[in-house]
Specification:
Layout (H helix, E strand, L loop, with lengths): L1 E5 L6 H9 L14 E7 L2 H10 L3 E3 L1 E7 L14 H8 L3 E8 L14 H29 L5 H14 L11 H8 L9 E7 L12 H7 L3 E5 L1 H8 L6 H8 L5 H13 L1 E7 L3 E8 L4 H8 L1 H5 L1 E8 H7 L2 H6 L4 E3 L9 E7 L2
Parallel strand pairs: 1-4, 1-5, 3-9, 5-6, 6-7
Antiparallel strand pairs: 2-4, 8-9, 10-11, 10-12
Helix pairs in contact: 1-8, 4-5
Bound molecules: guanosine-5'-diphosphate and magnesium ion (MG).
The site of magnesium ion has 3 residues, from helix 1.
Length: 352
């Protein structure tokens, strides 16, 4: 899983990246063409409890990658994307749009005003235009080759949807069409979380710039964050952070809030593996089959899949041990097509 950050110049993308990942990437650097990449771990008390029982050599939370792509200044200040950023973002599973909502006279807004909802529209248009260009090129080629196939018809529908000012995210399409579209990496098709980057004067206010209301109208989600303050707190020693957060009136840790929203938006969940060597949570999409969940761990396990031994975390904890869970009939044998549930503890049997 990979989430890519987008947003206008100086909206605070790198600041938010640091706040959420605890990194120390340089902020306020313009025209620097370097992507910042970090891994976010999703804290999970089920992993902690299982680790207390199994005492494994190692335990690990589910992870996803967070990428901050900085477009080059020279390609137009008001543009959020350039060709290098596009390549990086094509492979992202989701986008996080950082919207400037903080006031700071020293930091120039590329459009010379602070209007978060208007910025959302500017960026959405840019995503749609980018997709439209890809589609037009593709259609032209297909027309030249005389290939008016299924994909052609689908791209035609995408084109008119975009031309009517809507993102591909809202285009109704079948499972087959989703597969046909997947290879293109269309940006306006990706789930997008809107992240309002507010100044400290807005801490504790519910929806200061109306971003949540706007997001809801677009069938989207918005969360608030005070990037600059959160970044400072994230750079403190872990044990000092809770007291500072309380003093500053910051709510649930920004990273957790962000992770919860991202999981919701992407329809993600976790399953667990538990043994002496390692206790670990793995991120998958909801409605994933057992055989595909196996592939998240290793392609060999998917290839040689025989069956899955499954016990739900709650049943395991209630029973107290794997032996007792088995006695109680809570450990089931499932086949390839079993739909994995959030909190399943799974042991895959495989043969390669
Ligand atoms: N006052 C204030 N300044 C911020 C905030 N977030 C970012 N900045 C400043 O805005 C400038 C641009 O931030 P940066 O994260 O580099 O933006 P990027 O170009 O989108 O990556 C930097 O000087 C930051 O210190 C914020 O929440 N409040
Ligand atoms: Mg930056």
């Amino acid at each position: 899983m990979k989430a890519g950050i987008i947003g206008l110049a100086r909206s605070g993308k790198t600041t938010v990246f640091n706040a959420i990942t605890g990194s120390h990437a340089a902020t306020g650097t313009f025209g620097v063409r370097k992507a910042n990449v970090a891994v976010i771990k999703a804290p999970d008390e089920r992993v902690d409890k299982l680790a207390a029982i199994y005492k494994p050599k190692k335990s690990a939370y589910a992870e996803f990658q967070f990428v901050d792509v900085a477009p080059a200044e020279s390609e137009g200040e008001e543009k959020a994307l350039d060709s290098a950023a596009l390549i990086e973002l094509k492979s992202a599973d989701a986008l996080v749009h950082v919207v400037r909502a903080f006031k700071n006279e020293d930091v120039m807004h590329p459009l010379g005003r602070i209007d978060p909802v208007a910025d959302c529209k500017v960026l959405e248009e840019e995503l749609q235009l980018t997709d439209l260009i890809v589609i037009e090129r593709r259609l032209e080629r297909k027309e030249k080759e005389g290939k008016k196939d299924r994909e052609y018809e689908l791209l035609k529908r995408c084109q008119s949807h975009l031309e009517s000012g809507q993102p591909l995210r809202t285009l109704e399409h079948s499972a087959q069409e989703a597969k046909d579209l997947a290879g293109y990496g269309f940006l306006s098709l990706k789930p997008m979380l809107i992240l309002g980057n507010y100044g400290e004067e807005n801490i504790g206010e519910p929806d200061p710039a109306g971003l949540q209301a706007y997001a809801a109208s677009q069938n989207n989600t918005a969360i608030e964050l005070c990037g600059a303050i959160e970044m400072e707190v994230a750079s403190l020693p872990a044990e000092d952070q809770p007291a500072f957060r309380q003093d500053l009136g910051l709510g649930e840790e920004s990273r957790l809030r962000f992770i919860h929203s991202a999981y919701d938006m992407l329809g993600l969940m976790s399953f667990l593996t538990a043994a002496e060597p390692e206790v670990r949570a793995w991120t998958i999409r909801k409605h994933t089959r057992a055989v595909e969940a196996a592939g998240v761990i290793h392609s060999d396990i998917q290839r040689g899949f025989i069956r899955a031994e499954v016990v739900h975390y709650d049943d395991f904890i209630a029973a107290g041990s794997m032996a007792k869970a088995k006695e109680a009939g809570k450990v089931r044998l499932e086949g390839k097509d079993y739909i994995v549930q959030d909190g399943d503890i799974i042991l895959f049997r495989f043969n390669v």
